[in-house]
Specification:
Cys-tRNA-ligase, 466 residues, alpha/beta, 4-stranded parallel β-sheet, Rossmann fold, binds adenosine monophosphate, EC 6.1.1.16, zinc ion binding, binds zinc ion, elongated
């Protein structure tokens, strides 16, 4: 089974061949940290987390880098509005972002580099472009000379003439061509700045990713990701910068997620229909939101509505219930007897179906169908009066393996219910009566592990939670 992914660059699903066997270098453009993130921003955050988790489940060692844009025009404006400094603003919203994505069950990135920590690397990158004539200085600004990079437009599949046609007429006599983009911006009085060969200023937006990718991952990486709006101009410009300097492809696979809409409308400031992640998770479980995100293929638009969330909550509940029922039955099931071979095979079939679907350009909705097949098998099995602990373990292990990739099961610790504890105490007393010391010890260990303490009293055994 080979992994295939849709590459925006070639517009084809391609077999994934990493630069180095067993390793994946992955970069996903991160947020500008001037605000709390909204549910739309959650889509790339969750999708690329799942890509990374799936690659790890397939035994790849993944280096996952996602940056913070902690200085730019929007940051400067917002800091002014809030009467704080740009670094103070950044600290606030970086902390908020990390908190929000942790709530969403997103695994920590290998590193979260920031623009302000990489100014020297950015200046060096721009200097190299100027040296090679791919960039020019104009009154303290530095611009990229797009006409010099023959492949400009290759990612978004447009040529320079088309771009010229589509571009807003900007009155900027500093640029040689309207489609040239800024690499370094001269500081206006009172703005945050760094010294550079072109005077005091700050980096333009696109250059940071070229500089950070090269510094933290190298000249060519495996996977570069982001929302589809980043294809042009952001990623197009990253390619132009990096490939002009290194002469090598910036990334072998370019992945872009489609947008999340609200009630079939674009989320926008003017419509005022944005919802923050931190507000949403006060209303619904974060796992439901994750499940909802993964219920559509990442290249298809996804519609957020009360109805679609309700459906997601119901579907996820069926998976969670199966999981909880398996766990609860395990408490009182004993023994490790034989498992029927046909059952083992059916469980294994759901596992290969899951991988097959994920291998097909990360088809999460179809992979979730495989999870439901497992749930259906488990529910059928649980209808039996006598169940085998080994079989229950097998179901649970498989469900947990799926969850390693999807991250949709409740993170709340499993607690024993009161009646389960009481049943276990009865079982233990019986086990001791019949001199089944192994079973009696097994039960005592299980209770200890769950923080339940037993006390022998003249009235019988009492129990309490730690
Ligand atoms: P921004 O804050 O607009 O720079 O966006 C940060 C990330 O979220 C980028 O990868 C965007 O492509 C992505 N993004 C923004 N809005 C949406 C949306 N409604 N649906 C999906 N992705 C989005
Ligand atoms: Zn970027």
């Amino acid at each position: 089974m080979t992994l295939r992914m849709y590459n925006t660059l070639t517009r084809k699903k391609e077999e994934f061949v990493p630069l180095e066997p067993g390793k994946v270098k992955m970069y996903v453009c991160g947020p500008t940290v001037y605000n709390y993130i909204h549910i739309g921003n959650g889509r790339p955050v969750i999708f690329f987390d799942v890509v990374r988790r799936f690659l790890e489940s397939q035994n790849y060692e993944v280096t996952y880098i996602t940056n913070f844009t902690d200085v730019d025009d929007k940051m400067i404006r917002k800091a002014e509005e809030m009467a704080v400094t740009v670094p103070e603003l950044a600290e606030t919203f970086i902390a908020a972002f990390l908190e929000d994505i942790q709530t969403l069950g997103v695994h920590d990135a290998t590193m979260n580099p920031r623009v302000t920590e990489n100014i020297q690397e950015i200046i060096d990158f721009i200097a190299a472009l100027v040296d090679k004539d791919f960039a020019y200085e104009a009154r303290g600004d530095v611009y990229y000379r797009t006409t010099k990079f023959a492949e400009y437009g290759k990612l978004s599949h447009q040529n320079l003439e088309e771009l010229q046609y589509g571009i807003r007429i900007e009155v900027d006599d500093r640029k040689e061509n309207p489609q040239d983009f800024v690499l370094w911006k001269a500081a206006k009085p009172g703005e945050i700045y760094w010294d550079s060969p072109w005077g005091q200023g700050r980096p333009g937006w696109h250059i940071e990713c070229s500089a950070m990718v090269r510094k933290y991952l190298g000249e060519t990486i495996d996977i570069h990701g982001g929302g589809q709006d980043l294809t042009f101009p952001h990623h197009e410009c990253e390619i132009a910068q990096t490939e002009a300097v290194t002469g090598h492809p910036m990334a072998n696979y370019w992945l872009h997620n489609a947008f999340l809409n609200i009630d079939n409308e674009k989320m926008s400031k003017s419509l005022g229909n944005g919802i923050l992640i931190r507000d949403l998770v006060k209303q619904i479980k974060p796992e439901v939101f994750r499940f909802f995100m993964l219920s559509a293929h990442y290249r298809n638009p996804l519609n957020f509505s009360d109805e679609s969330l309700k459906q997601a909550a119901n579907a996820l509940e069926r998976i969670q219930n199966a999981h909880d029922n398996l766990k609860h039955r395990l408490v009182t099931a004993s023994g490790t007897g034989e498992i029927e071979a046909a059952l083992t095979e059916r469980i294994a079939a759901t596992a290969s179906q899951f991988v097959e679907k994920m291998n097909d350009d990360f088809n999460t909705p179809d992979a979730i169908t495989a999870v439901f097949d497992l749930v259906a098998e488990a529910n059928l099995y649980l209808q039996q009066e006598r169940v085998n602990a080994a079989a229950l373990h097998m179901f649970l292990d498989q469900l947990q393996a799926f969850d390693q990739t999807l991250g949709i099961l409740s993170k709340q610790a499993d607690e024993l219910l009161d009646e389960e504890i009481e049943q276990l105490i009865v079982d233990r007393t019986e086990a001791r009566k019949s001199k089944n010391w192994a079973r009696a010890d097994e039960i005592r260990d299980l209770l200890t592990e769950k923080g339940i303490f037993l006390e022998d009293t003249p009235q019988g055994i009492r129990w309490r939670r730690k």
